[in-house]
Structure formats: C-alpha cells, structure tokens
Amino acid sequence: MLATSQCVRHCRGMHTRFDDIVDLWPNIQAFADDLGVPYVTAQSMKFRNNIHSRHWRAVIAAAQRHGFEGISYEVLVSIKPGNVRSRSVRNSTGAAA
C-alpha cells in the first residue's frame, strides 16, 4: 500500500503524464504484477512515458482497486505519449546537445 504522503501527492487532481500514473504504485514490480506484464515491460512504460492502450483497462481496474482517483479512459486519452521531462538531448557521440 502507498504511504499517505505519496497518495496525497498523486491521488488527487489531474494526471498529465503516463510515468506519473506508474508512480502511483509503490514500485515498478507492483505495477507490472497488477497489469500482468513482465517487469521490463512496465519499466519501459515508465521510461518511455507511454502506456499502450491495450493495457488501459488493467491500469484503470488496478487503480480503482487501490483507490487511486482520477484514472479513467478520458484521462489516459488526454495524455500525450512520450512527453519527456527536460532530459537533455544527446547527439550520436553521447555529448549533450
């Protein structure tokens, strides 16, 4: 179960990023278990900031079981996949661009 401070931070209001939704769970393994996917699949969802629509039903059902508010098809549709937080862009040499 989530710590109260974590739930207060995430369970209220509008979710605008897929990785924020993944962060509702205590860890990636718990998220993976709830969705019935391998750990690496859940890890990729968080890293890529994208949850494929074939998993949305499981995400919504798991969120409801855990009492996470504000997770619905409408919210998931409204999130733009891959909206990356200010990560530096790297060129082919690995240097920051």
Structure in words:
With 97 residues, this protein is an all-alpha fold. It contains 6 helices and no strands.
Give a topology summary:
Layout: H1 4-10, H2 18-22, H3 28-35, H4 39-48, H5 56-66, H6 73-78
Helix pairs in contact: 3-4
Radius of gyration: 14 Å
DSSP strand (E) fraction?
under 5%
Rounded average pLDDT: 79
Helix content: 40-55%
Low-confidence runs of at least 5 consecutive residues = 1-12, 84-91
Number of strands: 0
Shape: globular
Count the DSSP helices: 6
Class derived from helix and strand content = mainly alpha
Biggest pleated-sheet summary: none
Distance between the termini: 41 Å
Q: N-to-C SSE series?
A: HHHHHH
Quick overview of this protein structure:
By secondary structure, the chain is mainly α. The chain contains six helices and no strands. The protein is globular and about 25 Å long.
Which terms would index this structure?
disordered N terminus; mainly alpha; single chain; 97 residues
